Amino acid sequence: MRLTLGHIDEYDERTATFARQLGLGSVQLHNPTNLSGTDGYWGEAELRALRERCESDGLRLEGLENVPAANFWRIQRGLPGRDEQLDNYRRTVVNMGRAGIPVLGYHFITTYVWRTRLRAAGRGGALVTAFDLADAGRGNALAAYKLTPDEPVTEPITAEQMWAHHRYFLDAVLPVAEEAGVRLALHPDDPPVDVPLGGAARIFTSPAALAEAARQAGGSPAWGLDLCVGTVSEMGGEPAVLEVVDRLGGDRISYVHFRDVRGTVPRFAECFLGEGNISPPRVLRHLRDAGFTGFVIDDHVPAMVGDRDTWADTSSEAYVSRGRAHALGYLQGVLAALDAD
Questions:
Q1: What is the torsion angle, in degrees rounded to the nearest 10, for the CA atoms of residue 6, residue 8, residue 13 and residue 17?
Q2: What is the 3-state secondary structure (H, E, C) of 73-142?
Q3: CB 299, CB 257: distance < 8 Å
Q4: Minimal CA–CA distance to 250: which of 194, 196, 191, 293?
Q5: Among 270, 319, 327, 275, CA closest to 296
Q6: Is 7 helix (H, G, I), strand (E, B) or coil?
Q7: What pLDDT was estimated at residue 313?
Q8: Tens digits of residue pLDDT in 216-256
Q9: Whether pLDDT at 80 is above 90
Q10: Which family does it belong to (predicted)?
Q11: pLDDT of res. 312
Q12: CA distances (Å), origin 127, targets 197, 259, 303, 318
């Protein structure tokens, strides 16, 4: 188990320097601006160049996460044109394997992550995001975020349809991923509410649903879970997080997003590590004891005094923040203590 600088939207000298100053040896990138995807997929040459650029900075590229929404939304909704998008997704997977990038995170949140406030007041006035189902009818405060599809849902999508779309995706992609040596990693639905948001049902909303996703994958070594601790904490606090680890085991968890919230659905707010629903040391110890040996990344963080924003700004200037340094330092301390045990 190792700590990685993750969820980077724009890899540049600033983010590379930030990782090195924090003593980290690897990075994970999130739909990075460094990749064009102009033909509907990521090309081998640009993927290889990105990996080599990270390595020239002394950093290993652990994996990528989330292709552009424009290349994936028909797959999620089961619409005409999804087979073309699946062809392109398979091209991305093959090219990642050839370029030596082993993990590709994905989500099946048709209308993407929802928040009802982006600048709620956290500890000491730090800015945090929040969700309240009672306010969801006013729309998604993250509607302008780059991974929120521009196309509205015109016909309601049921949970049964979403499960069928996910199986269709896995059946089409997993054999190629196995051959390419690339592992796909599913992110749970955030927020994990059992009512539609934006016209589409959410299905990966409980530990049992995540176990069902693993069953759909049929034992394929090319499928795993991106354990977003914060999202699972939204489901039911620390007991839900520990249940997911127990249900899937360390070998099925590809990597971990480590953040937390205060409260659970239908109402919660993001927060600093150590003041939310979970005990970070207990969760990390549980992962270690379950045999998890992947990487742990920082995730959403509060914006502290002098920081630019929470989610609205994805530039490297906003990313390299006091809030992120605090989260990473906290996790380094906990992992060091566990090693001392």
A1: -30
A2: HHHHHCCCCHHHHHHHHHHHHHHHHHHCCCEEEEECCCCCCCCCEEEEECHHHCEEEEEEHHHHHHCCCC
A3: yes
A4: 293
A5: 327
A6: strand
A7: 87
A8: 999 999 999 999 999 999 999 999 999 999 999 999 999 99
A9: yes
A10: Belongs to the mannonate dehydratase family.
A11: 78
A12: 24, 15, 5, 13
Burial status of residue 38 (CB atoms within 10 A of its CB: 0-12, 13-18, 19 or more): exposed
> Comparing C-alpha atoms, which of 330, 334, 319 is closest to residue 6?
319
User: Phi and psi of 111, rounded to 5°?
Assistant: -105, 20
- Give the separation between CA 324 and CA 116, rounded to whole angstroms: 22
**Mean pLDDT on 193-214:** 97
How many CA atoms, within 13 angstroms, populate the side-chain half-sphere of residue 118? 15
**Residue type for 60, please?**
R
The domain total for the chain is: 1
Domain that holds residue 81: 2-340
pLDDT tens digit sequence for 51-77: 999 999 999 999 999 999 999 999 999
The stretch 315-319 carries a mean pLDDT of 94
Q: Is the pLDDT of residue 277 over 90?
A: yes
Q: Output the six-digit token pair for 215.
A: 């069953």
> Tokens for 151?
């196309």
Q: Please name which of 23, 109, 68, 30 lies closest in space to residue 311, comparing C-alpha atoms.
A: 30
Contact 149, 112 (CB under 8 A): yes
What CATH number is associated with residue 78?
Answer: 3.20.20.150
Query: What pTM was estimated for this model as a whole?
Result: 0.97
Q: Which helix (H) or strand (E) holds 311?
A: none
Q: How far apart are CA 315 and CA 265, in angstroms?
A: 30
Task: List 295's β-bridge partners, or say none.
Answer: 2, 255
The DSSP H or E segment spanning 317 is helix 316-319
What's the gap between Cα 104 and its chain centre? 10
Strand partners, 106: 186
Map residue 63 onto helix, strand or coil. Answer: strand
Amino acid letter at 338? Answer: L
pLDDT-derived band at 38 (thresholds 50, 70, 90) equals confident
